[in-house]
Amino acid sequence: MAVSNIEKFDDITGKIFAELYQSFPLPQALLAEDFVEKAVQFDEQVGTEVPTDETEFFIATATWLMQAGYITCKTYPYVGIDNAVLTAKGLEVLKATPESVSSKSTIGEQLAVSAKEGGKEVARGLVSEAFGLGVKILSPMIGLS
Length: 145
What we know:
There is one protein chain. The chain is an alpha+beta fold. It has five helices and five strands; from the N terminus they run αβββαββααα. The protein has a three-stranded antiparallel sheet with strand order 1-5-4. The protein has a two-stranded antiparallel sheet with strand order 2-3. A hairpin with a 3-residue loop joins strand 4 and strand 5. The termini are far apart. This is DUF2513 domain-containing protein.
């Protein structure tokens, strides 16, 4: 069964969050090749390596996370992102303890463990929970109830 864009987004987001949570507050350069299976491919017409669709998806995910206010970064098309760090909102949601499990570990700590162990399903659930908390944080600011 093919992986949906939402599942790919959640997988990459979990890895980005785990990396930035572990290195906070130090800005990081995140290369697409460290987050996707195949970052570049040789293009016969151009005569050089070009980014894969996976790399473009990684960049689009990081760009969305930045525009949504979870991270700050500078994107470098075809390569990755630089000076990436969690924002106050990103840090707040990753420091929260998820309601869905009995663990006392924060979402960020659990994402770090699942990133190392390859627990994609766990990471996807934690990313969903983080985004749910992000919406709760924003709701009073934009008048949602």
